[in-house]
Task: inverse folding
């Protein structure tokens, strides 16, 4: 049996590992272990995903919590080093681009443990994004790089990564979506807000570039007002964003805004239900760009770069600046049915995690 130890810490990690853990458990040659760093710890940012994705409790919970980048990454590394020495895995799996990913990659490499990166090769080419640093370092250290889209293959080739280390498998986040799509649809979550399908905008925002900068945050608030004046908005607010809205004195006015449902972060199934029925997503999330492309729901990404260009070239994503006018125009086009239809990117078919499990056994089984 190959002892495969997966490291997770944040909301998008749970959704990705959901698919991987099920595929690892189903493979007779793999013995999966699950370590939760505790980077995200609120029940709405963590526990609900374990329940809804039918994941077992993690084998170890490290409770590292929040902090500056150095403090959080360092605390995670110290805790993971003990775990890796104790668990003696044959292989470490890290997913995505968060600080828990980076910490897992560094500790595995220093302990000479084989390490694979799921969702490798994505690049925004913006090193002011903490995720870009995490992606670059993790990919430099990984023994196998599992890729979701063509740009990832191109980026790794350009960076000189040997072809035999790179494996194009598709998208494990879409595996989870495919698995839970029907269950989510049955919830009809929009109805609970008194909203009909395709009659609202669903919004999420949490990038430091958008919400930590007071000027950009004020622009975002203006954008929320502008959209809400035209169409109802549901906005599950990430804890980083709620803290920033409160600190800058925006929260009370938004809470009072008619037509805006400013709510706590919601569970995966409820979010999937809202996303599938939305007329338009307005977001800065990485994963939501991919999910809307798969669902063929219009998506506006309020950023100036994306590490997931296939969602624009093939999918339903459009990148816009933090300006009222282009977003007003996008809302108009989306609700007039004038949005591109998009196509499903290659291998986004619900089977990426099984491909990864099979490849791990092929490579590390001997
Ligand atoms: C992290 C990831 C980001 C990812 C996002 C997914 C890094 C560098 N960033 O950003 O790439 O897109 O997760 O959601 O790893 N907080 C709570 N409760 C929680 C978690 C966080 O209140 O359960 C608050 C704390 O005030 C914390 C802040 O949110 O300081 C930011 O949390 P952190 O994990 O540092 O970064 P995210 O913005 O969540
Ligand atoms: N999501 C969720 N509830 C919410 C907001 C998002 O379940 O209130 C899901 C969403 O469907 C996607 C993932 O969380 O699968 C994206 O996480 P996030 O935007 O926090 O991180 P990113 O993808 O930007 O790293």
Result:
């Amino acid at each position: 049996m190959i002892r495969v130890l997966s490291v997770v810490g944040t909301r998008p990690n749970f959704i990705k590992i959901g698919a991987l853990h099920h595929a690892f458990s189903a493979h007779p040659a793999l013995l999966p272990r699950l370590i939760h760093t505790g980077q995200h710890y609120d029940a709405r940012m963590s526990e609900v995903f374990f329940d809804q994705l039918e994941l077992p409790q993690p084998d170890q919970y490290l409770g590292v919590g929040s902090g500056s980048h150095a403090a959080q990454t360092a605390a995670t590394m110290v805790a993971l080093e003990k775990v890796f020495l104790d668990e003696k895995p044959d292989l470490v799996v890290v997913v995505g681009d968060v600080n828990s990913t980076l910490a897992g990659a560094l500790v595995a490499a220093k302990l000479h443990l084989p390490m694979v990166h799921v969702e490798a090769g994505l690049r925004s080419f913006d090193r002011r994004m903490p995720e870009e640093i995490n992606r670059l370092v993790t990919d430099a250290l990984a023994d196998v790089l599992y890729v979701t889209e063509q740009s990832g293959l191109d980026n790794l080739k350009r960076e000189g990564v040997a072809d035999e280390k790179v494996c194009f498998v598709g998208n494990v986040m879409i595996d989870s979506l495919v698995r839970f799509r029907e269950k989510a649809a049955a919830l009809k979550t929009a109805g609970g807000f008194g909203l009909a399908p395709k009659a609202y905008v669903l919004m999420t925002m949490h990038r430091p570039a958008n919400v930590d900068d007071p000027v950009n945050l004020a622009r975002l608030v203006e954008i929320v007002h502008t959209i809400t004046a035209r169409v109802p908005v549901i906005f599950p607010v990430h804890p980083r964003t709620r803290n920033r809205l409160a600190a800058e004195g925006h929260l009370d006015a938004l809470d009072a805004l008619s037509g805006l449902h400013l709510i706590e972060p919601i569970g995966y199934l409820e979010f999937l239900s809202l996303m599938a029925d939305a007329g338009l997503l307005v977001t800065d999330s990485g994963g939501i760009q991919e999910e809307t492309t798969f669902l063929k729901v219009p998506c506006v990404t309020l950023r100036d770069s994306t590490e997931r260009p296939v969602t624009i070239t093939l999918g339903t994503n459009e990148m816009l600046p933090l300006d009222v006018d282009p977003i007003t125009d996008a809302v108009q086009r989306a609700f007039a049915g004038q949005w591109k239809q998009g196509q499903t990117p290659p291998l986004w078919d619900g089977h990426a995690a099984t491909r990864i499990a099979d490849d791990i056994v092929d490579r590390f089984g001997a």
